[in-house]
């Protein structure tokens, strides 16, 4: 049981428009305004996404280095073909930095290696934050601090 926003009694509440504002009031206080029809809000549940979530494989550094060397490219040439800095290529090959998913796709096409795999752990769409179902007058009041 919730409390009436007008009289404070603890009973079943209805939504009513009292003097231009919507309030949760008891049946006794509802006569001072017009009772609004209750709106049923459907709850949103997480659903499985259509496409599986992808992630970069664990041994990406070794795969990138061996595939680049197999093609006979230096890090400088490889960086120019990807339009990346040479330092970024060095970080990928040393394993200190992971390539982003779109770059990993580019690398896979350029080097003919598979750098992406499905990630079943992250296959669910993140749940939306729930909005508070009841608003009170206190939610709209701004409190000023005294000096």
Overview of the structural elements:
The chain is α+β, with helices and mostly antiparallel strands and 147 residues long. The chain has 2 domains: 1-39, no CATH class; 54-122, lambda repressor-like DNA-binding domains (434 Repressor (Amino-terminal Domain), Orthogonal Bundle). It has 4 helices and 7 strands, in the order ββββββααααβ. The chain has helices spanning 60-71, 75-82, 86-94, 101-111, and strands at 2-3, 10-11, 14-18, 21-25, 34-35, 54-56, 116-118. It has a 3-stranded antiparallel beta sheet with strand order 4-3-5, with no helix packed on it. A two-stranded antiparallel sheet has the order 1-2. The protein has a two-stranded antiparallel ribbon with strand order 6-7. Strand 1 and strand 2 (10-11) form a beta hairpin. Helix 2 (75-82) crosses helix 3. The radius of gyration is 29 Å and the shape is elongated. The model has no long low-confidence stretch (mean pLDDT 82).
Give a quick set of tags describing it.
single chain, 15% strand, alpha+beta, 147 residues, 434 Repressor (Amino-terminal Domain), elongated
